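All the exercises in this workshop are built on plain-text protein records. The record below serves as our worked example for the rest of this section.
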Amino acid sequence: MNEARKTFWDGVRAEFPLLVGVFPFGMIYGVLALNAGLSKAASQMMSSIVFAGSAQFVTAQLVHDSAPALVIILTIAVVNLRHMLYSASLAPYLKNVSLKWKVLLSYLLTDEAYAPSILQYEKEGVRPVSHWFLFGSGCALWSTWQISTAFGIFLGTAIPETWHLDFALALTFIAMVVPALKNRPMIAAAVSAGLVAVLAYSLPFKLGLILAALTGIVVGTILEGRKSPRGAL
């Protein structure tokens, strides 16, 4: 149990650098949810039940636009498809845990919890207490998200617009991506996607982001395919 407790707190500590960007992001969501017409209770409950920042932002915007419930549900499903990739990536390291643990960890799995966890698992491999690391990261993130949402709901109107808290989200994702860039194909994919995102920023319907993602995938795939395995004939 001591090893499990230590692993849990290792996960909490690994999450701390990302929480600096998560907190203002949660505050922004709280303000946006109220402006979209959601009640304070509904806004907070969404953070507790849905617990997915990007999906919550999209939902708030769709509610503001009076979109049909089916459209909202389908949009959230598409936005959160990336979590299937996260789950598949973590599955080899968590295959021996019980179903109850898998259900709990799937609820806590987010971008910010995944990033430090996969780096830790790739470094240490599978251990009997490996799941406690993701549990610690997820709990730290969940607690911060609830508190930051509450701050946004109750103190949002007092936050000066000149603070530009939305930039914290970009910093958070940069902090997640950079440690994972371990070889040239990864670096090239990230750089090319970033450049395209900047150059195509003015495209309508956020098409620049989709184009940037596709560019990164293509560049990374091509360069990865050109790598010759050592020792190959």
